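Reopening this ticket.

The earlier resolution said the output was attached, but the attachment link was broken on my side. Pasting everything inline this time so it's all in one place.
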Amino acid sequence: MISTHDGRTFPADACICATPAHGLGKIHWDPPLPDEQRKAAEELQYARITKTAVHFRNRFWGTKSGNSANGFSLFTNRASDFVFESTFGQDVSGGILCSYAIGDKADDLADEKHSNLARWIGGDVPDALGLRKKKKFQGTYVDHKP
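Inline output:
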């Protein structure tokens, strides 16, 4: 039987739990989780990651970047950290670059305004490619995983 905090119940022979491991301790298990599983979940280490997706009107990274059959990606030593094109191979107007920043850099970026992150990526990538002008972005999405 599965019970929710608001009193709803669901009869079941089994349950597939798809919660992050750090959330397992917040669930009341009856019977309790075996000690070995509970301890393993408590000891898991998670990386701190900030993912930023930025939509650009034009794919300025095209031929100058050496774009290959595997798509576009690069590392920078700036706010962008690791960048790849998430719209590679799609027949759409413009394109989206995704940036993954990890560790302390992710924590620092998590507190920034989305427009700052997009502006930084719009400058970091052209700089890394040897392009002169910063590129304008259309929209931003940020996902922070503590």
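Reporter confirms the inline version is readable. The mean pLDDT is 79. Strands lie at 2-3, 9-10, 49-56, 73-75, 82-85, 95-102, 137-145.
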